[in-house]
Amino acid sequence: MKHYFVPVWLLIITATLSSCKQKQEESAERPAAATSGENEVILTETQPDEQFWLAVESYAKGEYKQSADYIRESIRAMEKIESSGHANKHAIDLSIAALQQLADSVAVNHVSSIEKLNTTFANATKALAHLRLRVTETEFFNGSEQIAGSHFQSAVEHANRYISLHHYTPTREEVVILDDVASLSKRMKEGDKISEEELKESINAVDSLLTKWETRFNP
C-alpha cells in the first residue's frame, strides 16, 4: 500500500483554491449576472477549481476512485463553460480530453505522482485564464462593466492558480502587475468607469505574464 504525506506546497494550493467556495456564494449577490442571459450566468458562476483541489487531496490520501470522480466533475464544469458560447473551444476541448485521460488513469492507480495531476490542472487553469480575459473585453465593450470586472477577477485568480500548480513564486514585478489588475477588476465590479486604454493595457499585461510563464514551464 502506498503512503503519502501532504507537502507544504499542497497547503499553499489549498489557500489559493479555497476561495472558489466563497466566489460561488458571492455570485448570487451579483445583480448584473442575474439580469443576463442563461449563458452568461453559466459562464460567470461555473468554476472547476474546487474539483481540482479535491482531486489532488483525494489522490494524496490514496483515494484514487474518489479523485477520479472529482476530475470527472471538473470535466462537467468545463463542458458547461464550453457550452456558454464564449469559449475558445479548441483550448477547452484539449483540456477536457486531457482531464478525461487523467481521470481514467487515476481511477486505476496508473498515475505515478501528484505532479501529473498538477500539470493537467495547470493547463486547464491557463486555458480558463485566457478565456476570462477574452470575455472581460467582450463584456466591457457590450457596456456590462460590472460583469467584465467579475471575469477579470477570475482571470487573475486563474493566473495565480496556474503558477501555484507549477510551484512557482512570482517575482516582485509580477506580483505588482497581478495586484494592480486585481484592484482594477474590483473597481469595475463596484461600478467605477475605466478607460478602454486602461483595460486593454491591463489585459495585455496578464496575457504577457501567461505567455512568459508558459514558456518557462514548457521550454
List keywords for this structure.
219 residues, mainly alpha, disordered N terminus
Structural account:
The chain has 219 residues and is mainly alpha-helical. Helices cover 78% and strands 0% of the residues. The protein is built from 11 helices and no strands. Helix 5 (49-60) packs antiparallel against helix 6 (64-82).
Strand runs, count = 0
Beta-strand portion reads under 5%
pLDDT averaged residue by residue: 83
Envelope shape: globular
Q: Biggest sheet: strands, sense, closure?
A: none
Briefly summarize what is shown:
By secondary structure, this protein is mainly alpha-helical. Helix content is 78%, strand content 0%.
Write the layout of secondary structure elements.
Blueprint: H1 8-17, H2 19-27, H3 31-34, H4 38-45, H5 49-60, H6 64-82, H7 89-107, H8 114-141, H9 145-165, H10 172-189, H11 196-217
Helix pairs in contact: 1-5, 1-9, 5-6, 5-8, 6-7, 7-8, 8-9, 8-11, 9-10, 9-11, 10-11
